[in-house]
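## Example pair
The file below holds two records. Each record gives the amino-acid sequence first, followed by its structure token line.
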Amino acid sequence: MSNAAIAATGGAGAAAAIMQAIKASGAIVRIEPADFTNLVEKAEDPLVVCCESRFIFTSYQYLMGYKGLVFFTKSPTPLVLPQRIETINCKKIWIPA
């Protein structure tokens, strides 16, 4: 098998893995931090997953399910969320590209 054929097979495998990850995670809707905060305030019994990411700079990532969709936002500063909500802190949030 030539190097080009091996590379093509590897690329196809990677694409298939990404598609499988998207299918497993469902629809993820990226929204602005202010819209995310508004959505949290609307939700009856919200559960928010939070993550502080420190790569080149610090950012804060948030996930929340609402009416069958998963909403995601990323902010340079922590969001001010209502105290009534349940939060889960995690080490990493991975979103398929």
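Second record, same layout:
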Amino acid sequence: MKLKISRRVSAIQPSATLAIAGIARELKAKGQPVLSFSAGEPDFASPEGALAAARNAMDRGETRYTANSGIPELKRAIAGYYKTRFDLDYAPSEIIVSSGAKQVLYQAGQTLADLDDEVLLPNPAWVSYVEQVRLADAGEVIIDTSSTGFIPTRDGMESALSKKTVGMIINTPNNPTGVVYGRDTLEMLADVARQNDLWIIYDEIYERLTYGEAKHYNILQIAPDLRDRVIIVNGVSKAYSMTGWRIGYALGPKEAIAKMDDIQSHLSSNATSIAQWASVGAIESGESYIESNRREFERRRDLLMDLLSGVEGLRLERPDGAFYAFIDVRNSSVPDDNEFCRRILEEKFVALVPGDAFFAPGYVRMSYACSEDDIREGAERIKEFLRG
């Protein structure tokens, strides 16, 4: 008798970014000279403050279960960070710590979305948003932003509304485009939510990584009246180069956070105790570390732009945040993004992510969270590939 797989799970598509990163690792293990620009993972070591805090926690025997929603020390550190950075006040009961921001997003979706609800998603959108909306038995409504520089507009948002619309997921700085939403855009999004009684999941995991004149705003700095309908998502993975520690967190209304805590109590219980203490150390001592890394990412961004701008068949705009370039390949010799990524991995051992995974066919995402040497070599291989 064949094992029956549920319809809900059968419909899930695997993460394209993780799948390509896995293929790249397998090829590299076989001795191939693979350059992976697929994963959103900084190549810096975690900050010494995080490592020291983890060592001290282990020496103290902090290796048991913690409070399900996170240790008080980490909640205080998160609250202090948001007070200092955004002048927002959150109590411990309004904060939850989970095993990565991805888990936080899942629990938020399960808490806020219901059967047949609709959730607005400006595209390009990170690969997991849609699958998590579907896991809540809700439906995504993709809003095309390709003609407006990947910035959502009021007309685009309002034309997507229906009687089933309950909320929106907003991500800035954006993965995969590197676009940073300005004040006017956030005011518009807040007003659409306000006028239509919508909730907002505000994913700002890349908020410390902006470049040039670009400035990141927390949406509650602009629309404080929406505090009771906004869940903020963040974590230590990107700013502190702590992807493997798996610590994400959310700040939001007490009732919603409590329900997310209930889900977590049955899903995973507390995040790893040592990783939580490491995150306390990172947040409390990592400001100079963050700024040093931000400057390095900006140098890498500028290098990549210098190397690929003007290459025949490619079009790319200078990203203002995160650590991705979103490259238009529709006028290249291989205009199909999936074919482009498959062939360049097979022929030149360069791992990129197809834009189709982000609801933006015809583009490829290239992470510059890697060394300058890899960026130079990767750009040269891309040019060779396009020359045939």
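Notes on the second record: The chain has a mean pLDDT of 96. DSSP finds 14 helices and twelve strands in the chain.
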